[in-house]
């Protein structure tokens, strides 16, 4: 029935209908009678979620378990949402088109803060109550994992269980625990399930923790609400990445997605320690895969997908100690002779033109480095290892080898930043153009510093929206040059990100209110409506500056204190 309605009345009328159809190459379809069903939900567009490696790993990992079927769902676009609501069609999975409420578990990925209203929207479109305490009886357990769990507190009212750390480590255990409970103990109810789960490492059940606030509005204490519940939840990590599961049959979509290629995770974590870095804080340990393992994964992945590109991916691929050898090994394999190899992140100190040439980029259009700021003084404060001489050396080599484009990332609003640091950005850009002999064009991207939970800068204050705009204008003047293209991130979106990244449970009601007012896809500038968020904050009596624009003293209890590793 649903198939017919979709085929006749919905799909012909929505944009990119293939994103709702499923049945792509390498997608898994298990029998309807499977013992346990998990819907993996990505709270952003299909084209983004399909490129998320962690989501793919968990999908294939769960489908490799006996008696478990994992299916996918992505956030529907506005036109699809309209049809789902008008025609009273509950949100459904791609594989079996089963309504999400028929699954045992719905597992959201939390890739960043500005997807939170999409999560509420997807729960609501599934015709499930938004609040955990209202979800009782025969309805799915809603769980979430990913980088957003560094501080999951703003979502504590909506998500039953958070997976802390690497999902491969904890999710299969949670699924097995649930399976056993479903067979042997379901009558005991959800509370019993949650209490049992909370005793397992790497599992956080927010409803089993009580938060007390001080009279100045800060968090006073966070304590377990029940005996046997650990006072601190530790993140779990895959220690031996080389032996960890890695999918070699990635799903091949029918429509364009962000990354159309095989993504080969060569390392997890980063050996560098930039003080602002959320990813570094999440992955903590730096682990790497062996070259032989990677080569075999690459060969199998290309064979199973037909892609013609492999990306050697990690937070800091240039720090993989055998990078040139790995590329050499891949190049030697007959099965990969028509495959191009790309690198996701290089550093100027580990840069080598031989490596770039070895990668065989035919289009010498662009390469990216991240000086982050314009002065060595500020780089020391943020702990960014970046020598300008290394950058100039790389630029000379690239220009001589025929490269014509370079992208530089900078962050503005960093702690202690002053005009001299900003002027340094202008000076650095001009020097890059000069040493390239006028051969290169520069693309400069300015993001705003957002203090994140569990990083060394977690107690810092964020610069104000007007101050950030002023810095952007200042740099716009400094970088006016026909060889430089400048773009920057929306300061209001960065401000909201700062509130949600370090919010406590009271910010949950603001997310709910913003969603009710129509906020969706807040990470997309064309959809972001800051005025609705402002109304939501004021309607809920929550001051966003309290979360974003305040230095938090050392003695203040942070909302994520009980979740530190
Ligand atoms: S190098 Fe990149 S990934 Fe590593 S800590 Fe610094 S910002 Fe984070």
TrEMBL record:
Source taxon at top rank: Bacteria
Domain Radical SAM core: 256-490
GO molecular function: catalytic activity; iron-sulfur cluster binding
NCBIfam families on file: rSAM_fuse_unch (TIGR03960)
Protein name, per record: TIGR03960 family B12-binding radical SAM protein
Organism: candidate division NPL-UPA2 bacterium Unc8
